[in-house]
Amino acid sequence: MKMKKITFQGWKNCIELTNGDFRIVVTTEIGPRIVGAFLGPKGANLLYLDKKLLGTSNQKVWTNYGGHRIWHAPEDSVRSYCPDSRKVVMAELRDGGVAFMAPREELTGIVKTINVYPEGNNSFRIEHQIRNEGLWDIEAAAWGITQLMPGGTAILPQNRGPEGLVPNRSVNFWPYAKPDDSRFVYGDRFVLVKQTAKGAPTKIGLNSGEGWCAYINNNTAFIKQFEYYDENEYPDLGSSIEVYTEGGYLELETLGPLAILEPGDEVTHSEYWTAAEVEQIPLNNDNDVIDMLGIVDDDECGCEDDCCCHEEEKKASKKAAKKSSKKADSKAAAKADGAKKTASKKAPAKKAAKKK
Question: The whole model's pTM is what?
Answer without folding.
Answer: 0.86
